[in-house]
TrEMBL record:
Residues 6-162 form the PPIase cyclophilin-type domain. InterPro entries: CRIP (IPR035542), Cyclophilin-like_dom_sf (IPR029000), Cyclophilin-type_PPIase_dom (IPR002130), Cyclophilin_PPIL4 (IPR035538), Nucleotide-bd_a/b_plait_sf (IPR012677), RBD_domain_sf (IPR035979), RRM_dom (IPR000504). It is found in: Nucleus. Residues 242-320 form the RRM domain. Its EC number is 5.2.1.8. This is Peptidyl-prolyl cis-trans isomerase. Residues 200-219 are annotated as: Disordered. GO terms for molecular function: peptidyl-prolyl cis-trans isomerase activity; RNA binding.
Length: 355
């Protein structure tokens, strides 16, 4: 009873313990069958310990069991199947549920990258063993990671192929005719995807050099995009050092609201939430211009990830180059010379700093 996991750096084959932990094995098999794990990344890589995957949001904080998908939120988690004789972590390549507490199993799982991890025994349901692809495990184990143990380059599950499934499909299980297409949301994840060219480019570089190259390439890509859509006269133009790009805004957040919050860090010259030209709807990002570079840097450090109108915002310098050409913003926002709108009832602005 096996599953082949295709990743962007190689294949891993897992044998499942269907007799010892049938509910856990069935959960894993049926999630694979509905392509639930496709494009999940390994978001937690702790060298010579374990690698974790199985959360489609790629944060490690979410995930859902097949039972939750079929029967609703009350069935999101299922019980442990921990047995002393099988739930040990003596072998490298042990596959177990990454539950965060007793009987809190969903879709998240981990694979050990070291032998004899006795501290994990009797805490997690061991439901499989890697039988092929230990070299792939070692590649993941050796990858460069950031301070949160997330790889600097995305290591991603591409496909899961069930080699043998002894369980019948439960009623209501919707199996897709084909694998879903991969569509990356750069607003959520702007990290490199591993490919052959990138591997060659980064070969022999240190973690810091790879991270610096990642940031430079990301900034360049976004500048080229802004040039293509007419926001920038040239992708090579130098970004102003006193303008911030703010994204992931709540659609209800107004320019005036944002200015109130950001004015705590300095004198605001302009603050504009960018809007769709046709509908007038917020595009959920904005530009905040300060009177000095120092004020801008202070805001960059203080405002990242704060809560505004129940949304955690992201603050960056890179995309603020769009502010170089104010006229181009009219492609996305209302003209500033339009008649004044009727005053709307002022909503209560809420924001919270995270320390």
């Amino acid at each position: 009873m096996s599953v082949l996991i295709e990743t962007n750096i190689g294949d891993i084959v897992i044998d499942l313990k269907i007799k010892e932990c049938p509910n856990t094995a069935k959960n894993f098999l049926k999630l694979c069958k509905i392509k639930y794990y496709n494009f999940c990344i390994f978001y937690n890589v702790q060298k010579d310990y374990l690698i974790e995957c199985g959360d489609p949001t790629n944060t490690g904080k979410n995930g859902e069991s097949i039972y939750g998908i079929l029967y609703g939120n009350e069935a999101r988690y299922f019980q442990d199947e921990i047995k002393k004789n099988i739930n040990n972590h003596s072998s490298l390549g042990t596959v177990a549920m990454a539950n965060k507490g007793k009987d809190l199993n969903d879709s998240r799982f981990y694979i050990t990258t070291k032998e004899n991890l006795d501290q994990l025994n009797e805490k997690h349901t061991v439901f499989g063993q890697v039988v092929e692809g230990l070299d792939v495990l070692e590649k993941i184990n050796s990858t460069f990671v950031d301070d949160d143990n997330r790889p600097l380059q995305n290591i991603r599950i591409l496909h899961t192929i069930i080699l043998d499934d002894p369980f019948s499909d439960p009623n209501g299980l919707e199996v897709p005719d084909k694998s879903p297409s991969f569509k990356k949301d750069f607003n959520i994840d702007n990290r490199f995807e591993i490919d052959d060219d990138l591997d060659k480019e980064n070969r022999g570089k240190s973690k810091e050099e790879i991270q610096e190259a990642t940031e430079e390439k990301d900034a360049r890509s976004r500048s080229e995009l802004l040039e293509m859509i007419g926001v920038l006269p040239s992708a090579d133009i130098r970004p102003p050092d006193h303008v911030l790009f703010v994204c992931k805004l709540n659609p209800t957040t107004e320019s005036e609201d944002l200015e109130i919050v950001f004015s705590q860090c300095g004198t605001i010259k302009s603050c504009e939430v960018v809007r769709d030209k046709v509908t007038g709807d917020s595009l959920c990002y904005a530009f905040v211009e300060y009177s000095s570079k120092e004020e801008c840097e202070r805001a960059y450090l203080k405002m990242e990830n704060i809560l505004i109108d129940e949304r955690r915002i992201h603050v960056d310098f890179c995309q603020s180059v769009a502010k170089v050409n104010n006229n181009s913003l009219s492609k996305f926002s209302y003209s500033f010379k339009k008649k004044k709108k009727k005053k709307k009832k002022k909503k209560k602005l809420t924001f919270q700093f995270i320390y």
